Amino acid sequence: MLLIKRAISLFQAVWEVIWHPRSLYFVLHNEDVFRRRIRTEFPGFEKGLPVVFIEDVVSKPLPVVETYSQLGGTSPAIDIALLMGIASEIPSCSYFEIGTWRGESVVNVSRVASACYTLNLDHAQQVAKGYSREAIAAAGFYLTNRNDILRLTGDSQSFDYQSLGRTFDLVFIDGDHHAQAVATDTRKVWCHLLHDRSIVVWHDYTRDQTEVFQEVLYGILGGVPARLHGHLYHVWGTNCAIYLPVAVEARSTENRFIPHHNFKIEIKHNPLDPSVLQPTPASFEARSEKGE
Fold first, then answer.
1. Which residues pair with 168 in a beta bridge?
2. How far apart are CA 16 and CA 94, in angstroms?
3. How far, in whole angstroms, is CA 92 from its chain's centroid?
4. N or C: which end of the chain has fewer CB within 10 A?
5. Contact present, 149 and 106 (Cβ < 8 Å)
6. CA-CA distance, 156 to 160, in Å (whole number)?
7. Is 108 a member of any domain?
8. Averaged over 154-172, what is the pLDDT?
9. 207: number of CA atoms within 13 Å, CB side?
10. Which residues pair with 212 in a beta bridge?
11. Which helix (H) or strand (E) holds 24?
12. 18 found inside a domain
């Protein structure tokens, strides 16, 4: 009976793919698929990365996040504060970010880092990938007139990192979250952007700080050299995975719903001057018509 039920389920899945080919994407990118791949290819990581606490990574109180939209699509404030905390403890920190949208992460990190680079898709690439008009119009919102931040454009999967001719102290990978893309970004970072003391942070390793995003984990493990897998951790209370050049002792967190820290949150909101709310829909349409 069990075999019959499995055969019926398989037939239904094949039938769904035949009639709705796009559903094949969801079959190939199912979290259970990546969970099984991790169990087979990376034994020992079935339950995710070992956990460290924020104080294992940053010794001082986290800096204040001062520029934040509180809108969908951005990193939680705690994740940005983690980046700032790491950068603040590295003398003359150099920072590279893959995947910049409105620019909240890099704008905040720039307050404590000496050099900040970002890499994001250009306008045409965003259109080609089907990004909404509203999302494209918001790209780089906080980076206008920020000459202290070097904005690079291009696809991180094919970008010539070697042309930069330098390495970075802290790299934040927050681009395409498909497994192959995460692995490719990671390999390129390892080949061209790191020195022996560099720290790498990946975003969206978890959802809601607790549930592991298996596809991202698979990409991380596939991109980081196997000999360094023992230096990979999840920073508890954030959505971030991290590579540390010096291994630290992992923490025990049996119940993911039991808090290990108490956070103090102070919220101040400041309305923006309407004159900075650009680009406007009209100017966006003009750029689109020109194919820019």
1. 194
2. 49
3. 23
4. N
5. yes
6. 8
7. yes
8. 97
9. 7
10. 206
11. helix 23-28
12. no
Q: In the numeric block, which tokens belong to residue 139?
A: 């790209």
CATH number of the domain that 276 lies in? 3.40.50.150
Judged by phi (left if over 0) then psi (alpha if -120 to 50, else beta), residue 247 lies in: beta
Domain count, the chain: 1
pLDDT at 287: 37
Which two three-digit tokens encode residue 242? 């991290």
Condensed to tens digits (0 to 9), the pLDDT of residues 215-246 reads 999 999 999 999 999 999 999 999 999 999 99
Tokens found for residue 197 = 């003391």
Q: Which domain holds residue 224?
A: 51-290
Share of the chain above pLDDT 70, in %: 84
167 vs 55, 94, 188, 193, 196, CA distance in Å? Answer: 26, 8, 12, 4, 10
Peptide bond into 281 cis (omega under 30): no
Beta bridge partners of 170: 95, 199
> Is 111 contained in some domain?
yes
